[in-house]
Design goal:
The chain is an alpha+beta fold and 140 residues long. Helix content is 34%, strand content 13%. The structure holds iron/sulfur cluster (SF4).
């Protein structure tokens, strides 16, 4: 997933992923994590769930080819999942600089992209970029 990132669908519709047993977006995930995501997941008692990518983003770690929080059937932290997971399949297409539904999502036609969702994705991407810079400064 080249692009960066509440789901375009409400949770009732998001269950389409569950109904169709689709786990594609949780396989080999590169989902970036915001400060809020990390703090929320740590409060759930988890550690060692992220990696820092070459682009500086802290992302979900994979295990056995899928997100460390996916047990093969479902997301084990669904109600605490990262913001990007909630927006998905709405993503920012970095080449076209616009929010779109990820072409890699086989069920994207079932999701609706609204202006509110697009704004939310853009705000999240800006926040992630700003947090990345802050983290880099802290590391140096
Ligand atoms: S946190 Fe949950 S929804 Fe997000 S990639 Fe991992 S298993 Fe999938």
């Amino acid at each position: 997933m080249k692009a960066l990132f509440e789901s375009p669908a409400k949770d009732g519709v998001k269950s389409i992923c569950l109904q169709r047993s689709c786990t594609k977006c949780c396989q080999d995930t590169e989902m970036p994590l915001s400060d809020l995501d990390i703090s929320r997941i740590e409060k759930l008692g988890f550690r060692n769930f992220s990696v820092v990518k070459r682009n500086g983003h802290r992302c979900l770690r994979n295990s056995s080819g899928r997100c460390v929080f996916h047990d093969g059937l479902r997301c084990t932290i669904y109600f605490g999942r990262p913001e990007g997971c909630r927006f998905y399949p709405a993503v920012l297409d970095l080449d076209r600089k616009q929010v779109t539904l990820d072409k890699h999502c086989p069920n994207r036609s079932l999701f609706r992209l609204t202006p509110q969702i697009s704004r939310g994705v853009i705000r999240l991407v800006h926040r992630l970029e700003s947090e990345k810079k802050r983290t880099q400064v802290t590391v140096v």
